[in-house]
Amino acid sequence: MPFDGIVTKSIVDELTSELVGGRVEKIFQPEADEIVLLVRAWNKSLRLVMSASPNYPRIHITEVVKENPSSPPVFCMLLRKHLNGGRILSFEFNDYERIIGVVIEATNELGDISEKKLVIEIMGRYSNIILLNSDNKILDSIKHVDSDISSVREVMPARPYMLPPAQDKLSPAIVDTSALLQELDASNKTVDKFLLDQIKGFSPLLCREVCFRAGIENRTGTASLSEDARMSLKEALDSVLNEIKESKYDPCIQFDDEQHQKPLDFHCLNISQYKYRLSLDSISQVLDTFYSSRDNAERLRQKKSDLYKVLNTSIERCNKKLAIQEETLREVADREKLKLYGELITANIYAIPKNTQSVSLLNYYSETGDEYIDIALNPNLLPQENAQRYYKKYAKAKNAFLHTSRQLKDSQKELEYLESVLQLLDNCSAMHEMDEVRQELSEQGYMKLKKRHLQKKQTQMSNPLNFTSSDGFDIFVGKNNKQNDYLTLKFAQSNDIWLHTKTIPGSHVIIKKQGREIPERTLKEAAILAAWHSKARMSSNVQVDYTNVKNVSKPSGAKPGMVIYVNYKTAVVTPDKALVDKLMA
User: Fold this and answer.
1) Which terminus of the chain has a lower count of CB atoms within 10 Å, N or C?
2) Distance between CA atoms of 24 and 106, rounded to whole angstroms?
3) Dihedrals φ, ψ of 157, to 5°?
């Protein structure tokens, strides 16, 4: 991971310069594994983020402001109790390990001044944030590690704090490159792996950088290096170590593209192995820029995954319900026979002997008039009782048919709705859009919102997608069912054009006429947008229905996004991403 021991030293240097002497004004816990300290220092307020995320653990000053839960978590309350109003004394850092201690002097409830230490351990999925008292005992941590999880090192309240096992490597401050490189022949490793295993605080990125500066392929075996290559390696390693010792920082992000849209790595040193790079003023800016987008994308992916799980579970349940209902309808498909049996028994009631198990009776409803039907009887019942038994079976089967038919239609509509939400979920690209889907599913009874979501203030609905056709017409596309309802039922005028994929879940699309006739090219482009924003995105020859908005209506009690329409025409198009990108307003 790019957040290596060298970056850790650089962030400690920066935080020491920016925050030591500052006061902790507020403490927040916006995520289960993330703490934010609002610090007043040097006549300005700065936000210090500490994240124990398994994917993106870090500590730096941030410009990102996240929404906080209405009820702070227990760990956040504990931090407020012990650290609010406290003064930051120092940032502790030990020999290029990715562990930072924030030493804070605060006043306790009795008015006594005491020191506390907030430790962040940046160790991938084992990352943690731990509050210690002045005796180095754990008050609490954002993640508990008991003996069931680790028999070597518990992280639990009231336990003494122990540092993670130290790495058996050389500190960059004391590396003798000449002596180190004498071990190349015996290592039997690639050059980058040799450096990674020998020098504390070095990441794979930095090891590759040393090789790049030396002009050596990083996967080259150490034993096969020529004498010239060894000298080049020594010079490159000396250069990097000198930059570290003298804190010659050049915070930068490395990209895979010239437009700086695809960040690959970052570091506090000058990384020259990548063609595209962006230098920033501070390592905090680098970390904030690099991690905020990735962290948001990861959390969005996780929350989207949670909603997919809810939807897929509901769809599976709905399909099971449909299967049962279809089986019930198959079972009562011959219900009219039961009625016929009752009528034939009644018509021949005096001709049927008692205690018989079956009887063959003329079916006077048949077309030929000479068809006989074998009817099973209960020998313990009188003929009229057998007739009543068949009438009751018929009535029960008829009621089951009527009731199940209604249920089947409801289930089919429910399945159509759920599949539409599932498809529209793909369009979500921001957290507030996810919240709209989450809110919709809660209102429809498919999930319960957590307390923080229930108490959250109602926010304005996000905007639908807006495109401009080649002829200059505005085209709007709903990103969720609430937007679909809004576009079709409130936003659009009666003569605007409404489009939707035929019998396939997708977005509502509106072409604003604005008093003009809509050309065929615009109609086709809008149909392509409808096909692209549907379940048929990867298909070809997709049928898209279109009509005036006045021909679209919402049945009473219909779920969000569900409408019916008449007097429509159908276009056949193939989704085209290049066109979609071109039309984006």
Assistant:
1) C
2) 9
3) -55, 140
Residues facing 38 on adjacent strands: 26, 47
Could you check whether 5-141 and 177-283 share the same CATH topology? no
Helix (H, G, I), strand (E, B) or coil at 39: strand
154-198 pLDDT, tens digit per residue, is 999 999 999 998 888 999 999 999 999 999 988 889 999 999 999
Cα 309 to the chain's mean position, in Å? Answer: 11
d(C-alpha 544, C-alpha 570), whole Å:
5
CA distance 291 to 266: 10
Q: Does domain 5-141 have CATH number 1.10.580.10?
A: no
In angstroms, the CA 195 to CA 138 distance is: 35
Confidence label for 585 from pLDDT (cuts 50, 70 and 90):
low
Q: Which residue has the higher pLDDT, 302 or 406?
A: 406
Question: Domain coordinates of the chain in residue numbers?
Answer: 5-141, 177-283, 306-459, 465-583
Helix (H, G, I), strand (E, B) or coil at 40: strand
Q: What is the pLDDT of residue 448?
A: 85
Structure tokens given for 480: 């969720």
Q: Which string of b and e fits 128-165 if b means at least 16 CB within 10 Å?
A: bbbbbeeeeebbbbbbebeeeeeeeebbeeeeebeeee
Q: Is the dihedral of CA 315, 321, 322, 323 positive or negative?
A: positive
Between the two ends of the chain, the Cα-to-Cα distance in Å is 38
Domain 177-283 CATH class label: mainly alpha
